[in-house]
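ASSEMBLY PREDICTION REQUEST
Request ID: AP-0331
Submitted by: J.K., bench scientist
Number of chains: three
Total residues: 1120
Priority: normal
Notes: Please return the full assembly, not individual chains.
Input sequences:
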Amino acid sequence: MHKNTNRLRTFTLVLAAGALLGSTVGCSGSGSTNAADGSPSANAKNPNAKRYKISMMFPLYGDPPQKAEVWKYIEDKFNIEYESMGVPDNSYAEKLMVTVASGDMPDAMVWTKYPDPEFNKLVRQGAFLQLDDYLKSAPNIQKIPQTIWNNIKVDGKIYGIPRPRALTRAAVIIRKDWLDNLGLPIPKTVDDIYNTAVKFTTGDPDRNGKNDTFGIVMGENVSHQDSLWMAFDTGNGWRVMEDGTLMSADITPGRRQALQWLSRLYQEGGIDKDFAVLKNTQVWEKLESGKAGIMLGGQTSDFARYVENLSKVDPKAQLIMIHPPVGPTGKSGFAETTGFFGQIVLPATLGKDPDKVRRIISFLDFQASDEGYKMGRYGIEGVHYTKNPDGTLKLNNEKLKADGSPFIHNAYDPYQYVVTSAPPEVQKQQHDNLDMVKDLGIPNPAVSFLAPTAVEKGADLAKLRDETFVKIVMGKLPIEAFDDFVKEWKAKGGDQITKEVNDWYKSQKK
Amino acid sequence: MVYKPTLGSRLFDTANVVLLILCSLITLFPFVYILATSLAPLSQVLRGGLILWPERLTWDAYHTILTNRHFVGSLWITVVITLVGTFTNLLFTVFMAYPLAKKRLKGRSVILFLVLFTMLFSGGMIPSYMVVKSLGLLNTIWSLILPGAISAFNLIILKNFFQAIPEELEESARIDGCKNMGVLFRIVLPLSMPALATFTLFYAVGHWNSFFSAVMYITKSELWPIQVVLRQMIIEGSTQEYQEALSSAEIQVLPATIKMAAIVVATVPILCVYPFLQKHFAKGVLLGSVKG
Amino acid sequence: MKEHAVKSQKMSSALKPAHRTWRGWLMDWDLYLLLLPGLLFFLVFKYVPMWGVIIAFMDYSPFRGILGSEWVGFKHFVTLFTYDQFWRIFRNTIVISFYNLVFFFPAPIVLSLLLNEIRKQVFKRFVQTVIYVPHFVSWVVVAGMTYLMLGTQGGLVNELIKAGGGEAVPFLTTPEWFRGLIVSQSIWKETGWGTIIFLAALSGVDPQLYEAAIVDGAGRWRQMWHVTLPAIRSTIFILLILRLGHVLDVGFEQIFLMLNSTVNEVGDVFETYVYREGLVGGKFSYTTAVGLFKSAIGLIMVVLANWIAKKFGEEGVY
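STATUS: Completed
Returned structure:
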């Protein structure tokens, strides 16, 4: 027993030592973080001489940015002490809410969700600073297209700075080597795609003697079919019908035709039989592992990764991006996006310190400028890249990745999706595709409007839609089930939503 | 111990061993998959399918992770949090469980009910965050230790274990002149080593795996524990926003090998804790010696 | 063993009849002192934040806070109960919970009893360490592996079936398989971890009791019945009561990952429902109300279970 008491004592001592150690670590970590407003240093005569402490919160998708050269550059240039609050993106939504509720908001936050009823509510409650006047002196931010500004305005005023993205950046990706092996031309219409998909499944296109390939890749809830829907003219979100009113793209006749096409193809094996359980990463893997031949709703930026990974599995594979297929009425294209990803908001309390706001805006404006954009992407010359004699840049990708970027804003650059660490041929393909799809976007006429009933019943209607569509494609329900779905959709709130959207649409047109 | 094994008894033993071997294989199986994938060359992994044996030992994934400065820093932080945290947990839990194990204690039932109540009802994230904030714990490791100092579940079970210790042992210690504290340290704790080992393990694993609290309470990435850093390497998100970010080439998607290596690195250290604690699970060793 | 304890307690109480109460207080002042840090903890970190449950009765706005938000009484609960799929969600949750209770709950008990019968310490320790490894594997990996094994295109099991001449079985997209799959996954992942508590309890059993039983002529089974099981009986009851408190919690991540449009009718549970609603945005109050409902049901179950346990002479939780 004594032996054990002694052991217990030693154990306690060791942990007590650990506790002491821990409290020193804990204490050194706490520092002085909480004050989000500027703690001015001694010289406060000239507003530009005042060193502000600026904190910015944004979703983090990888490693947090390092306090390296770029960081020091911006701190010097703008005379600020910059605090970068990167929050892991999968918990970002909760962190945002908690931050707002705690009453202690950082100087700038990225609001990712759009459209967001909560955001609109917060604006109306006076949580965020109105930015119209401040932005007048931000030339680079002004370059953002007017349509995007219109989309994010709440009650006609600007409360956030959108981070612009290209309106259309999707891609249709196909295995060129499979087409060649089977002697098939590049498919142009949806019928061509159909036949090609079937041949990809039955014709052993990779010539390995096994029946292990299939045509079109698809994920749960019939995902990754962007260009197909557009080819059948389902509309994007809402379709402007022949009589000028809007109908939800979930119930248009085009949707019915597309579903019928898909269910026939599924029966013939042209679509992954397991699609209903596949998450995004698993969908990509189907293409990268050489099992699938066609992706109808891919992303231009992802193309680089697909090429790289696929080459490791099958060095002879050849992926290309083609023009989206044309449907029975001659339509083709992709769903146009909102044109931005997240908006940067400032807390209304910051209005008490207009100089600080101006400093923040000028910092963001810099990020939107050409110089700032280049710095955000390529870093500082001599440190992260060197200029080649022909003007192109030689990037030190490792250092770029290790340092990360403290910028949370960007300039408008449609070629942003070209992956700079990819081989030149791939970059060219991406560049060309972006050029091609630029004007192929089909807009959503009601993208900025949130019908009140949609907030209430939207989740349920979406679930009903997904269940019905998946079952129709899999053949568990006949195509006639679509008509029943339309009736149910309308009865469970769809009609109400349609009315609200149309009322809004009419009010916008005048 | 004189003991004549019957035929039935021997059959049972054999069947038992076979069954347990089967269980071991089934439970080891996912880890074999993870380990194999983490050591396999990328070409094999990308081909897909269930990998149980790497074609060629490839250490690239581990190299990437172990040379990541965030990772190494977070490893150290996590060790500190786990040590300090587990010690704090044990202190608080033992001190509370011991009195509650005495049936004669007034108010015992009420206190236990109140504890149980907290297992079912909670105010949610926002009020908890505000409490932690008002105590000035944000961005310190104490925000990961204090709000979880006692797990109601562990408390209730530990109290139960304490109650199982026979009264006469306590009585005999009291006759020898021990007060309550003496009984706790000389009788109860030594006899509860299996329970203490169990809860040390539970609490330690809890700290090692802490993720959500760290994200909520700590914005300084230097203080992030290992799970946060690792999850940033393993991108699992399929949210709409993630898709947006992905399509703007802001993120680098890391291959499955790194995901698996991250899991191995995150898990192996804590797996090693159990074997250390196992010796405390020795059967009733101390009971006999005290009784005499 | 229990009889001994009861006897000695009766004896000591017989010795000090009238003075027991105040003597008890005095003797135990240091016990109350010991309780203090723990009580403080629960007060500060559990009860002070409890005000958050009020959100369920308001239209809470995080910016305005509690004082600035509107009181709506039971509106959210009415919305919940009149939701046309409420019974489906409730039923799914209860059924999965029930399956877990019947199949998953006893598994660690059985396994720990089996492990207890092993004489070779080395083998026993090896198995103990190995079986709890799946606890550390995230649900994401488990779901991914499930697909690799049970998918119809290239899934291991189905490839074997096809090689044997059969038709691929759509395990993952057929409602009939869903619940079994969920419970199997839980058993696979958590049984090993669950044995730890029971093994700790079993290691506290006095070996002299086994000797006494053998002298009395007890075989393996009777030993287990009269010595082993009673040692873990109170632990089993406590765990059962605690589990009943979580009768409507079935594990969000696992179900969310396995859920897809084809199995919604059996797999949609409270947590996935709340998640969906939360995605649309700004539904704190509603989601808090649903959580409150689940907790209330759990409380009723616990109180009931505790009362029944005490009626049977068992130690309840409180």
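REVIEWER COMMENTS: Chain B touches chain A through 67 residues (CB under 8 Å).
SIGN-OFF: pending second reviewer
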